[in-house]
Design a protein that fits this description.
With 283 residues, the chain is mainly beta. The chain is built from four helices and 16 strands. The chain has one domain (2-45, 84-281). Helices cover 11% and strands 39% of the residues. A hairpin with a 4-residue loop joins strand 13 and strand 14.
């Protein structure tokens, strides 16, 4: 999608034309980290999808098996599931927005369809910020489906390397409860914000968890190396004192996750984000 003739969505482009997600593994750029090749910009996955793994991908498994041999690689690849696009229901654009609605299937390495999803993604462009609304409805279309308690699961974004806290260049994490950096990992919150430098500009990436979203306020698998994940499935994986978060969807049942991503110039301020959250919550 373009806005005023400027690319918005090949990468996630923020105000000022700055790339707001890491380019790797789609491109290998000097100065970026090259870890976790399954961290592709903005994505959804779940490591425990009916016994299969739709979080990782082949390139990750190849890298992790280099020292362990072919048998280890075969076993890792056999554990993978794929997210397979089925069809677009709607693709439409207005002056300052665009909407994509699609259906997708999760398919095990044995070819079995595990469950499906319905995604509604709305892109909006304004003078001071860009937003992406990402609603995903997981549906047990092909029989009972179990999503197990896993740390690596949920709606995710990999930030530009220059913004991460570990770079020590001014990157910070802040959540709705005032927790910062490593203290925000595994904690429930209505929102989490990442701020830091991108090509000399201070930028913010904010992810809001809608009150109607499954298990709001969600726990966050947010890492100082640049990962931002809203994970309502890994309750015990993210907090050993919590109950197991595995969920069984009976055939035909569903659950819905709702999130808004805001891309904005400047460092994230809690007061501004609370206003953003109030507006989003009312929708």
């Amino acid at each position: 999608m373009t806005y005023d003739g400027i690319l918005f969505t090949k990468y996630v482009i923020g105000p000022g034309g700055l790339k707001m997600t890491r380019a790797y593994p789609m491109q290998t750029l000097e100065g970026e980290t090259h870890d976790h090749p399954h961290h592709r910009s903005i994505w959804f996955g779940h490591q425990g999808t009916d016994g299969f793994d739709s979080w990782h991908e082949r390139q990750t498994m190849v890298e992790r098996s280099k020292k362990r041999g072919e048998e280890d690689l075969r076993n890792r690849l056999a554990s993978l599931a794929s997210t397979v696009h089925r069809r677009f229901i709607s693709v439409k654009a207005a002056r300052d927005s665009a909407t994509i609605i699609s259906e997708n299937d999760y398919v095990g390495s044995d070819g079995r369809k595990l469950l499906s999803d319905l995604r509604t993604i709305v892109f909006r462009a304004g003078k001071s910020a860009r937003t992406i609304d990402f609603d995903i409805k997981l549906i047990a279309s092909y029989g009972d489906s179990t999503l197990t308690d896993k740390k690596d699961a949920g709606f995710s974004l990999r930030i530009p390397t220059s913004m991460d806290v570990d770079r020590d260049k001014g990157g910070t994490i802040l959540n709705s409860n005032g927790l910062k950096d490593k203290a925000a990992w595994g904690k429930r919150a209505a929102w989490v914000a990442y701020s830091g430098p991108v090509k000399g500009e201070t930028m913010s990436i904010i992810m809001l968890n809608h009150p109607a979203s499954f298990r709001h306020p969600t726990p966050w698998h947010v890492r100082t190396y640049g990962l931002l994940t809203a994970n309502p499935f890994g309750l015990k994986s993210l907090d050993k004192s919590a109950k197991d978060g595995s969920i069984l969807l009976r055939k035909g049942e569903s659950l819905t996750l709702r999130h808004r991503v805001i891309l904005r110039k400047g460092r994230a301020r809690a007061s501004t984000i609370e206003a953003d959250f109030a507006a989003y919550s009312s929708e």
